[in-house]
Amino acid sequence: MNRFYLDVHALQTVPPSNLNRDDTGSPKSSVYGGAPRARVSSQAWKKATRDYFGAKNLLDPSELGVRTKKVVEVLADRIREHDASVTESDALELAAEVVAATGLKIEVPKRKSSKKAGADDAGADEETQDRPPQAKYLVFLSTRQLDGLARFAVEGAADIAKFLKDKDNKARVKQIADTRHSVDIALFGRMVADSTDFNVDAAVQVAHAISVHRVDNESDYYTAVDDHNKDSEPGAGMIGTVDFNSATLYRYAALGIHQLAANLGEGLREDESKITPVRRAAEAFIQGFVESLPTGKINTFGHHTLPDAVVVKLRTTRPVSFVAAFEEPVRGDLGGHVSEACARLAEYIPDVERAYGDEGSTLTWVLRVGPNTRKLADIGTESASIGELVASVGQAVAERLEKPE
Amino acid sequence: MSVLALRLAGPMQSWGSSARFARRTTESAPTKSGVIGLLAAAAGIERGDDEALATLADGLRFGVRIDQPGSRVRDFQTAHHGVTGASMPLSERFYLADAVFVAAVAGETGLLTRLFGALRAPAYPPFLGRRSCPPAQPVELGLRDGDSLQQALTDEPWQAAAWYRRRHQDEAMVSLTVLREADEDEHDADHQRDQPLSFAAEQRRHALRTVVSRSVNVPNPDVVRQQAGRPRHDPFDALEESV
Prior knowledge:
The complex is a heterodimer.
Chain A lengths: L4 E13 L11 E4 L2 E6 L1 H15 L9 E3 L2 H12 L5 H14 L4 E2 L26 E2 L3 E3 L1 H13 L4 H6 L1 H10 L5 H7 L15 E3 L2 E3 L6 E7 L13 E19 H8 L10 H17 L6 H4 L7 E7 L21 H20 L6 E6 L12 E2 L3 H17 L3
Parallel strand pairs in A: 13-14
Antiparallel strand pairs in A: 1-11, 1-12, 2-3, 3-9, 4-7, 5-6, 8-11, 9-11, 10-11, 12-13
Helix pairs in contact in A: 1-9, 2-3, 2-4, 3-4, 8-9, 9-12
Chain B lengths: L1 E12 L9 E2 L7 H12 L6 H10 L1 E8 L2 E7 L13 E17 L1 H12 L19 E6 L3 H7 L6 H6 L5 E8 L9 E9 L6 E15 L16 H7 L1
Parallel strand pairs in B: 2-5
Antiparallel strand pairs in B: 1-5, 1-6, 3-5, 3-7, 4-5, 7-9, 8-9
Keywords (chain B): Antiviral defense
Organism (chain B): Streptomyces castrisilvae
InterPro entries (chain B): CRISPR-assoc_prot_Cas5, CRISPR-assoc_prot_Cas5_N, CRISPR-assoc_prot_CasD
């Protein structure tokens, strides 16, 4: 399949805040261009993006991946792909056992001609039936999960019942089939790798966000009064410090659309375009990444902001971070951090594209807020709203996917 | 035979060679396994495809030049299990911030031409040792004739950032450290467990490889010539006199 990437760049200002702290409680920091910078780790922002998917219902697992009741048949085919020596009926039996072990309820569909009318949860001994058992409801499975289940089945093929009695194997099969997280796992991989066998290589790459300017952390000294203290000289009930900073952050993420398509798989329902799930996941990613915010100390600082400027590129060459535009720290005394950061990007982006890009195939969109971002207006197609941006990028992704190899 | 030169620069990089479990350290320069990994990813070699990996790992000799050493940053990370919410082990990750390196691989011209092309339209995007560390600019510098790593790493112009070059504007030549695999006739080599055998998720394996340390002198394009009549100022002169 054609290789292409989506890269998302955002400039976002946060007021005094502590979004992401280290073990001493200070906001995380780094050094770039010889100057200290505020930093928000990639894992913090990925977590925020994933949480945002759930909170805003951006992604419904049932929209994406393989959605089928015929999970036993699909898995049996996959088992035979992994081990061609397994007969068709053995594969069906294996698949039924494994699917049952994941906790999915399966039953043999009723048929007028069939004497056996009752449903059987275990689904075993069905090889004499001419119809394999089905799940009671539509099940969403990603390609990787199916592969994992097929490998698992082949591994225990000698005596599947005994294999599944083992506590560790039982736990493993449930974990492989944990369907609720498939789409975000296709995007982000597993956040916590506790079963390396079934890891998915993330389609998304998120960089640590860093401030475009020099930042030194500050410390807020606070006192709190004890309301019930009746002493003549009450003093403070509590004192302490909270470290914080404020920053204009450069945020960058790249999404391999071809990787996303491979992770989600192509075994979709007959009547549905195989492009739809990829498009929906890409759209959800852009919106989730742009609008989400790590919630560290958010009730203390109330740092709810959104990016001032967003640049999205769809390209057939490698994704490119524009962070080098801020290697020389931006100075705030030249009209504000956002304004100068936008001016830097407006100069840097055409330069780097001319030197390394593929202008013929690269598409660019801009979403911007306020007069400080005016210099970015000519960088790409302007979108009036995040909805418009997401829809037009999604449209372009779908068109690229439809193009023949 | 050719040499493919890469510029490895970004706000953060991390090149582990002996890091395990919850403490993930970084070497002070890119590792062979990290750079071979970057090339393999660009070429679309899947994890676990040890045969294809061996073509790169055994077919390419590796060297790196430290153009701007950067500084170490410690990152403290907490995590929770996605399904159960249970707290996972706290981990410490170390990064090199603000560093610039020139890495070079020497090998058969056809293979390097393919890899050079793959870097322009990679199967998996490049990163500098860790997924969260994308390069600040495209990494490929170009293909150079010849098969001498030492020569290629001597000829490559100094890649340090402008602010860093300014700090060294009094030096007409800068001395840079080169760490590379030894030639056959070099017997002062150290060993590092950094020859990738397998990147399979279940079982990553590395063998030993040689590493020799050399220094090269590279011209500084930003040198400010001493002007006649401008007094030379070195505060440490006074110290030496008084000793």
